[in-house]
Design goal:
The structure holds three protein chains of three kinds. Chain A has twelve helices and no strands. By secondary structure, chain A is mainly alpha-helical. The longest helix of chain A has 36 residues. In chain B, the strands form four sheets. A six-stranded mixed beta sheet of chain B has the order 6-7-8-3-9-10, sandwiched between helices. Chain B has a five-stranded antiparallel beta sheet with strand order 13-17-14-15-16. In chain B, strands 2-1-4-5 form a four-stranded antiparallel beta sheet, covered by helices on one side. The longest helix of chain B is centred in the middle third of the chain and has 18 residues. Chain B starts with a strand and ends with a strand. By secondary structure, chain C is mainly alpha-helical. Chain C is built from 15 helices and no strands. Chain C is globular, with a radius of gyration of 22 Å. The chains are: A mainly alpha, B alpha+beta, C mainly alpha. Chains in contact: A-B, A-C, B-C. Chains A and B meet through helix 1 of A and strand 1 and strand 4 of B.
Chain lengths: 272, 308, 270
C-alpha cells in the first residue's frame, strides 16, 4: 500500500494558476479596499485617541450625526411600511403595467445620486413647479433618502412573498382566519427577518448618502448639514485628520448596524 | 474493461471513509456497491471516476494504473443522482457535449446523437431544455450523454433514488437490459438492497468503509458472511434465540410446534405477515398469498411456529 | 376584488409614482423644456462631451475589472472555502456600507502624493490620485461587491455536479469554466454587471474627492452635472442628467430581463 506520492498530472498546472489567481485577487482587494481603510484609520488616530474623540464630538459633528441618523431613521421607517406594502402589491396583485412598476423600483439603484439630487432640488426647491420649497430643511433630506433606499425594502421582502409564505397563508385561510388576521399572524412574522434586513441595509446606506442630499439640504452647518457633507467640508479645508476621525465614526456606526441586523435576523429566523 | 481496486484508503478530515478496500470487477459485469448511508460507496465510485483523490491504494482500468490520471482522461461515463443536466443547453447539446470535446465532426455527431436519443427514447425531446423534462427523462438523457463518449466503464450514483416506484422500476429493467446488450462494465451505487439484487449480477456490500462481502445476489442473501450483511440484505426475525428470515418460518395448527398467539395479520398483497407473540417475544412470519389463503390466520388464535 | 386591496394598490402606486416615477419624468420634461435646438446645442457642449467621454473611458476599464474580480472571487469563496475566504466574504460587502465621501477620503489618504502608498508609488512614477486612474480606483471600490453578491448564492445553489460531469466527458478546466460554469451564472452575472455599470457611471461623492474635479480633464459626467448646478447653469446640468437617465433605463431593462430569465430557471421542476 503506497500513498500516491505524485500529484495528478493535470492538477499541477491548475493548482499554480489557482494560486496566482488568488494572489492577484487578494492584491486587487488590498489595493482597492484594505489599504485605504487602514490609511483612514491611521490618520484618524494619528494624534491619539483623545484627539479622535474630540473631533468626533465637536458640536458641528454631533449636530451633523444627529441630523443624519434622524433623517435616515425617518426614511427607513416610512419605507419599512411602504416597501412591504409595495412588495405585496407587486406580488399578490394583478394590474396592467405591473412589470413596468416592478422594473421602476430599481431606479434608485440605477440612477446616479447626483441626478436624483438635482431633480429633487428643482422639484421641491426655490423653482418648484408645485411651489413646495423644502430646501434647507430636514424634510427635503428625508424625502431624498426615502427615494434612494426604497429598493432595499422592497427587494428584501419580495422573494419571500413570491415563494415562501403563500402556502402557509392558504392553510391559515382554510382554518377560518380573516385576511387581516392571516397577514398579522402568518405573513408578517415570516417576513420579519427580511424586513429587518431591508431596513438595516437602507439605514446603513442612508447614513453615508451624499449626492442625492447635498443639493436640497443647502449644507447649512448645525442645521441641515449631513454627516458626509461635514466630512467633505473638513477634508477640503485641510482638516484631514478630523475628517478621517469622523469618517471612522460613521464607518463604525454603519458596520454596527449591519452586524446587529445580521444577528437579529438570524435569531428571528431560528425561532421560526 | 475490468477494474481492479487495490487497498483504497480515504479520509475526510479525521474520518476514515474507506479502509483498505480491494476488489476486482470483471469486465462486462453489472456490480452494485450496496450499503447504508455513510458506508463510503459514493466516495468509492467517485474515486474510480477520478473525481475524488485517494489517500492510499491504486485503481486500475483494464490493467492500466489510472490512480494519478484526471477524470477527463479515464474514458468513464458518470451519472449523478441529480442527473446534473446542463440546464442552459438543449437535450441534444447535452448529449453532444462529450462528442464536441472530442472534435467529432458535426454530421457524424448528429448521426450518433440521433441513434442515442432513439436508444433512450428521447428523440422528440431533442430541442427541449432539461427543465421541461420529467425526472425519468432527465435520467435517460444523462445516460445518453454518458454513453455518447463510448465509455469503457459506466458509473451510476444512486440513479433511481429520486424516481417514484413505477418510473424507477421501469427504468431499472431497461438499464439492466441495456447493460447486457452493450456489455459495458457498470458499477451502480445504491442503498436499496432490493434494487441491487434486481439489477446487478454481483454485489459488493460496504459497511463503514470496509467490504463485508462480495458475490452474486443469491449467494450473499443465502449465505451472509457477517451479521451486518445478514440484517442489511433482508428482514430478520428472532425465534427461540435464533435469527431467521421471516420466510424461513411457517405457521401450522396448534400443537405441531412451539405455540404462539397471532397479534396481527398484515396483508401486503403478494405477501402476508403474521405477527405472533410467545411470552415476551414478538416475531413475524412471512407467508405467501397462497399459503395465507389456505391457512387463514386469524388474530387472537393460537398457532404453532416452526422453521421450514 | 376587495375594496381594501384596491385601496392598497392605489396607495402604493401613488407612492411609487410620486417618489420614483415623477423625478424620472421630470428630468426628461426639463430636457425638452427649452426646445430642440437649445437641446442640440447643449448636447454638443464641449465640456459636457469631454466629461461624457471620460465617464465612458472609466467604465471601459472599471467594469471588466470588477466583473473579473467578482466572478473569480465568487468561485473561490464557494468552491474552495477556508477561513480566509470567510473573512473576504464578510469584508467584501464593506463598500456598500461606507459613504462615498469616506471612500474618496480614504483613497486620497492612501494614494495622494504625500500619502502612505502615494509616496513610494510616486517614486516609481505611479500616480494614482487626481487623475484618470484615481477615478477608476474609486469606481472599482464603490462597485466591488455588486457582482459577487449575485453570483455567490447562485453558485452555491447550482453545485458542482454539472462541472464534474463535464470533466468526465473529457473537458479540461478552461472548457468546463466557459461552457458550464459561466453559462450557469450568466444571468446573475448580467444582473451584477448592470448594477456595476450603473454604479460606475453614476458615482459622485467619491469621484468628487479623488478626481480634483478639474474641468475638461478629470471631470466626469456626474461631476459635470453637479458643477452646472453650482454655477447656475441648471439646464446644461439637466441635459447631462437626461443622458444618464437614459442609460439608467437601459440598465433597468437588463435587470428586468435578468430577473425574468432567473425566474424561468425555477419553473418546471417536477
Amino acid at each position: 500500500m503506497h500513498p500516491p506520492r505524485e500529484r495528478w498530472v493535470h492538477r499541477r498546472a491548475s493548482i499554480w494558476t489557482g494560486r496566482s489567481a488568488r494572489g492577484l485577487a487578494l492584491t486587487y482587494f488590498s489595493l482597492v479596499v484594505l489599504i485605504p481603510i487602514v490609511a483612514l484609520i491611521t490618520h484618524a488616530f494619528s494624534h491619539g485617541a483623545g484627539a479622535w474623540w474630540s473631533a468626533l464630538t465637536q458640536r458641528e459633528s454631533l449636530s451633523a450625526l444627529r441630523l443624519t441618523i434622524a433623517c435616515a431613521a425617518g426614511a427607513a421607517l416610512v419605507n419599512t411600511v411602504a416597501g412591504t406594502a409595495t412588495a405585496w402589491v407587486l406580488v399578490r396583485d394583478r394590474f396592467i403595467g405591473q412589470s413596468v412598476v416592478n422594473a421602476l423600483i430599481d431606479l434608485p439603484f440605477a440612477l446616479p445620486t447626483v441626478v436624483a439630487g438635482v431633480t429633487f432640488y428643482t422639484l421641491y426647491g426655490p423653482h418648484s413647479p408645485f411651489h413646495l420649497n423644502v430646501t434647507g430643511t430636514w424634510i427635503g433630506i428625508t424625502v431624498a433618502i426615502t427615494f434612494v433606499t426604497l429598493p432595499f425594502n422592497v427587494r428584501a421582502v419580495q422573494p419571500l412573498l413570491e415563494s415562501r409564505t403563500f402556502h402557509a397563508e392558504a392553510a391559515a385561510a382554510t382554518l377560518g382566519a380573516s385576511s387581516g388576521r392571516v397577514f398579522r399572524t402568518i405573513t408578517l412574522p415570516a417576513l420579519a427577518p427580511a424586513i429587518l434586513t431591508g431596513t438595516g441595509l437602507a439605514f446603513a446606506r442612508a447614513l453615508g448618502e451624499y449626492g442625492s442630499v447635498v443639493f436640497i439640504s443647502n449644507n447649512l452647518p448645525y442645521r441641515t448639514e449631513v454627516a458626509s457633507s461635514y466630512v467633505y467640508s473638513l477634508a477640503t479645508s485641510g482638516q484631514v485628520d478630523a475628517a478621517a476621525a469622523v469618517s471612522t465614526g460613521l464607518l463604525v456606526l454603519a458596520l454596527t448596524v449591519l452586524a446587529s441586523v445580521n444577528i437579529a435576523t438570524r435569531r428571528l429566523a431560528r425561532s421560526q | 474493461m475490468s477494474i481492479v481496486l487495490s487497498n483504497i484508503t480515504k479520509h475526510f478530515g479525521a474520518d476514515l471513509v474507506l479502509d483498505d478496500v480491494s476488489d476486482e470487477i470483471p469486465s462486462g459485469s453489472m456490480t452494485a456497491l450496496l450499503g447504508p448511508s455513510g458506508s463510503g460507496k459514493s466516495t468509492l465510485l467517485r474515486i474510480i471516476a477520478g473525481l475524488e483523490p485517494l489517500d492510499g491504494g491504486r485503481v486500475q482500468l483494464h490493467g492500466r494504473d489510472v490512480t494519478t490520471v484526471a477524470a477527463r482522461h479515464r474514458q468513464i461515463g458518470f451519472c449523478f443522482q441529480d442527473y446534473a443536466p446542463f440546464n442552459q443547453m438543449t437535450v441534444f447539446d447535452n448529449v453532444a457535449y462529450g462528442l464536441k470535446v472530442r472534435h467529432v465532426p458535426a454530421a457524424q455527431r448528429r448521426r450518433e446523437i440521433d441513434e442515442l436519443l432513439g436508444l433512450v427514447r428521447l428523440n422528440d425531446f431533442a430541442d427541449r431544455y432539461p427543465r421541461h423534462l420529467s425526472g425519468g427523462q432527465r435520467q435517460r438523457m444523462a445516460l445518453a450523454r454518458a454513453l455518447a463518449i463510448k465509455p469503457e466503464v459506466l458509473l451510476l450514483d444512486e440513479p433511481f433514488a429520486a424516481l417514484d416506484a413505477q418510473v424507477g422500476g421501469e427504468l431499472r429493467v431497461w438499464v439492466k437490459s441495456l447493460q447486457r446488450e452493450l456489455g459495458i462494465t457498470t458499477i451502480l451505487v445504491t442503498h436499496n438492497q432490493s434494487e441491487a439484487m434486481e439489477v446487478a449480477d454481483r454485489l459488493v456490500i460496504l459497511h463503514e468503509g470496509r467490504i463485508e462481502q462480495v458475490g452474486p445476489p443469491e449467494q450473499v442473501y443465502d449465505k451472509p458472511a457477517t451479521d451486518f450483511v445478514h440484517s442489511f440484505l433482508g428482514p430478520l426475525t428472532t425465534w427461540e434465540g435464533e435469527s431467521y428470515r421471516p420466510h424461513d418460518l411457517q405457521v401450522g395448527p396448534e400443537g405441531s410446534g412451539l405455540d404462539a398467539r397471532i397479534v396481527d395479520v398484515i396483508r401486503l398483497g403478494f405477501e402476508v405477515r403474521v405477527v405472533v407473540e410467545r411470552g415476551e417475544v414478538t416475531t413475524w412470519v412471512q407467508l405467501t398469498h397462497h399459503e395465507a389463503r389456505q391457512f387463514n390466520p386469524m388474530v387472537g388464535s393460537i398457532v404453532a411456529v416452526r422453521p421450514r | 376584488m376587495p375594496r381594501s386591496s384596491r385601496l392598497l394598490r392605489i396607495a402604493v402606486l401613488g407612492y411609487v409614482g410620486a417618489l420614483v416615477a415623477l423625478p424620472l419624468f421630470f428630468v426628461f420634461q426639463q430636457v425638452f423644456s427649452h426646445g430642440l435646438s437649445t437641446l442640440a446645442t447643449a448636447l454638443t457642449n464641449h465640456e459636457m462631451d469631454k466629461a461624457l467621454w471620460l465617464t465612458l473611458r472609466v467604465a471601459l476599464v472599471a467594469v471588466p475589472l470588477n466583473v473579473a474580480f467578482g466572478v473569480g472571487v465568487s468561485l473561490w469563496i464557494v468552491r474552495h472555502p477556508s477561513k480566509l475566504t470567510h473573512v473576504i466574504d464578510t469584508l467584501i460587502d464593506v463598500p456598500l456600507a461606507v459613504s462615498p465621501i469616506v471612500i474618496g477620503l480614504s483613497l486620497e489618504l492612501a494614494y495622494a502624493q504625500n500619502g502612505w502608498f502615494g509616496r513610494p508609488f510616486a517614486a516609481w512614477g505611479l500616480h494614482l490620485m487626481f487623475n484618470y486612474w484615481a477615478i477608476v480606483l474609486a469606481s472599482v471600490y464603490v462597485s466591488l461587491p455588486l457582482v459577487s453578491r449575485q453570483v455567490i448564492p447562485l453558485l452555491r445553489e447550482v453545485g458542482t455536479h454539472q462541472e464534474q460531469t463535464a470533466q468526465t466527458l473529457g473537458a479540461g478546466h478552461i472548457r468546463v469554466f466557459f461552457t458550464v460554469t459561466m453559462r450557469s451564472i450568466t444571468w446573475a452575472t448580467a444582473y451584477g454587471v448592470s448594477l456595476t455599470l450603473a454604479r460606475v457611471i453614476g458615482e459622485y461623492g467619491a469621484v468628487l474627492i479623488v478626481s480634483g474635479n478639474i474641468g475638461y480633464v478629470t471631470e466626469t459626467l456626474t461631476l459635470n452635472i453637479g458643477n452646472n448646478f453650482e454655477n447656475f447653469t441648471p439646464y446644461q446640468g439637466f441635459v447631462g442628467a437626461g443622458l444618464l437617465a437614459v442609460s439608467s433605463i437601459f440598465v433597468l431593462l437588463v435587470l428586468g430581463l435578468a430577473r425574468h430569465r432567473e425566474r424561468l430557471r425555477h419553473e418546471y421542476r417536477p
